[in-house]
């Protein structure tokens, strides 16, 4: 394998920040545009205008059928550090081109990553910038997985989905997940198009994936359980590993039973880091972190601040001073200049926060004045720009 296996003495470097612009090719946003080209129905997007070239540079071979397994919360390094438990993914990781990670979005979180993946664009196009963000129409904080505060998905996310565009080209697209996701706001915003098959049973979902793949086209299988387990009990423990083993068994069945010639693709939306209580900063205890801040959105690894008019530079400065090397603090202008959201479109700009905070190491930032204890004590978290959170697998195999 073409990477150094982390050792006890290098492990901490996985918690160092990496610098990555949204427009990279080895990026989650490239996966579906490149796959569309591999399937013979190239869908260009504003971020990836040449899907055929993209497929070539990602080494995606032409195919008649592809199955994408999307594993919520499986970071490249979370996988590598527990690779002994995953014979199937280990065999895939050993294959050429699979041993290098790709990058997810910043913030490294589901409600940002899935729309970017589903539209092949960038948060600047989808308007989905965080786990929570301020709704410019009401001024309230809205959660962007279920779209609280009465936000219609179309109100913020205007980009056509890749699934709907492949479907319009007459090629089969099948999404498989929990029944309640069929009409969920996030599906509507990011993954709409083609047929949806819902089932509560993982076995049935697997069966549906095998059956769907009998017809040429694209099958998408979403697996949520690993992220759920991490948020419940942390990632580095028996419960998480047991869940990972279950998922590897599913991958094993797909490898054995999918029609020959199928391209199997495994990717994810973000990795996870464990929360450490003594590395948590509470805004409620720090008056300097409160001054000039009207609303704190985002999540503990990536707070996004909406400030009093004209206060963004002063707030950013104060936060950087208080947090020192525990976080990187960026004003909106700095974040835009770094290109971390891609090209921000006029209609998404009002959703953007004034200050972005990206924590380092295992630090988290919470606010006990407004957040419930459960939100503040999640055993595993994500959202920031460390290797652990940002680097995700892209494992591909022609069966
Ligand atoms: Zn999560």
From TrEMBL:
Highest taxon of the lineage: Bacteria
SUPFAM superfamilies per the UniProt record, alphabetical: Alkaline phosphatase-like (SSF53649)
InterPro entries, sorted: Alkaline_phosphatase_core_sf, Phosphodiest/P_Trfase
UniProt name for this protein: Nucleotide pyrophosphatase
A molecular function (GO) term: hydrolase activity
Coiled-coil annotated residue ranges, if any: none
PANTHER family in the record: BIS(5'-ADENOSYL)-TRIPHOSPHATASE, ECTONUCLEOTIDE PYROPHOSPHATASE/PHOSPHODIESTERASE
């Amino acid at each position: 394998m073409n990477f150094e296996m982390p050792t006890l003495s290098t492990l901490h470097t996985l918690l160092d920040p990496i610098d990555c612009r949204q427009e990279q090719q080895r990026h989650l946003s490239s996966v579906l545009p490149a796959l569309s080209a591999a399937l013979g129905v190239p869908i260009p997007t504003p971020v990836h205008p040449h899907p055929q070239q993209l497929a070539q540079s990602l080494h995606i071979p032409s195919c008649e059928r592809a199955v994408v397994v999307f594993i919520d919360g499986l970071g490249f390094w979370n996988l590598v550090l527990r690779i002994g438990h995953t014979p199937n993914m280990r065999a895939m990781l050993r294959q050429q081109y699979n041993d290098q990670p790709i990058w997810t979005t910043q913030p490294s979180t589901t409600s940002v990553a899935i729309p970017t993946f589903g539209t092949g664009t960038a948060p600047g196009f989808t308007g989905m910038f965080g786990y929570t963000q301020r709704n410019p129409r009401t001024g309230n904080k809205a959660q962007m997985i279920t779209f609280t505060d009465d936000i219609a998905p179309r109100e913020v996310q205007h980009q056509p989905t890749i699934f709907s565009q492949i479907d319009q080209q007459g090629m089969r697209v099948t999404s498989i997940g929990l029944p309640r996701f069929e009409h969920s706001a996030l599906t509507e915003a990011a993954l709409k198009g083609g047929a949806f098959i819902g089932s509560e049973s993982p076995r049935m979902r697997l069966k549906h994936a095998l059956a769907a793949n009998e017809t040429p086209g694209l099958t998408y299988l979403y697996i949520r359980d690993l992220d759920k387990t991490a948020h419940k009990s942390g990632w580095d423990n028996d419960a998480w590993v047991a869940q990972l083993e279950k998922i590897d068994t599913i991958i094993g069945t797909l490898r054995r039973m999918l029609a020959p010639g199928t391209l199997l693709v495994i990717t994810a939306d973000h990795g996870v880091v464990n929360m450490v209580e003594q590395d948590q900063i509470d805004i409620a205890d720090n008056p300097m972190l409160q001054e000039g801040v009207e609303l704190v959105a985002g999540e503990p690894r990536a707070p996004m601040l909406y400030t009093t008019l004209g206060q963004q530079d002063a707030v950013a400065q104060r936060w950087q001073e208080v947090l020192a090397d525990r976080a990187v603090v960026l004003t909106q202008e700095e974040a835009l200049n770094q290109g971390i959201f891609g090209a921000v479109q006029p209609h998404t700009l009002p959703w953007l926060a004034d200050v972005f905070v990206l924590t380092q190491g295992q630090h988290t930032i919470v606010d006990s004045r407004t957040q419930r204890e459960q939100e503040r004590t999640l055993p595993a978290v994500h959202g920031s720009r460390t290797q652990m959170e940002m680097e995700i697998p892209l494992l591909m195999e022609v069966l």
